[in-house]
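Inputs:
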Amino acid sequence: MAKIKENSTNNLNRKYIITDCNLTYSICMVGGRWKLLILCNLENGKLRFGELRSKICNITERMLTLHLRELENDGIVKRTVYAEVPPKVEYELTDIGRELIPIWEQLSNWGEKHRAMTRPE
Amino acid sequence: MAKIKENSTNNLNRKYIITDCNLTYSICMVGGRWKLLILCNLENGKLRFGELRSKICNITERMLTLHLRELENDGIVKRTVYAEVPPKVEYELTDIGRELIPIWEQLSNWGEKHRAMTRPE
DNA sequence: CAGTATCCATTAAGATACTG
DNA sequence: CAGTATCTTAATGGATACTG
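Outputs:
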């Protein structure tokens, strides 16, 4: 029943990390409304903050920032700040982040198939 | 930007179905705190309500009921009621539900690896 | 046994304005 | 451009009691 980052603020999905279940751990790391969506947009290379925002329909700057910070803290995304004016920041997948690629690909394929089965046009 | 089941009550994760993204669709179907956990406990066959409850640490009856209903409505889980006293209800994966097995297996393996990397004992 | 119903607490998400 | 800060709303989760 051990939890991590207890009582932290602005920490998404952290309350239910129970260290004896790997699936729960993973859901904590990449579950939720936005994370896989952010990650899959980074599949083909680096993107800037604004590029991510415009690619991910309906995400607010606040949500994008919060989730990117978490993904960065968890070593799934790498953030690079360029010392330029105006500022330029790029995000990319880390090696462990890239290992998730087959997961969102399969999940996406499953969704397409499930939708075709249950919600035919 | 089309949504489904708008304004429904007690419908988890339904607000953000945008029909032109399969990944978002899948996340809606099996995302969230509990669904994959419920499903992976059904991987090896049928289970009764009480068995699921005791296998899934910390889940309340209410949450288990709500999520099982959704999974049933979405054709991912099959519910069988036996006409007995006391009541007996069994849950099992459907075919489309079984197609998710590799996803939680991979996700679980990823979690184990990620944890070993970032949180060594 | 397998749930419902009710009420309440916590958390995630969204809108908007502002800044280095 | 890439964020913060603040406030508000919506969604999720939990406790407890009760029932066919």
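Remarks. The first strand of chain B starts at residue 47 and ends at 48. The radius of gyration of chain B is 16 Å.
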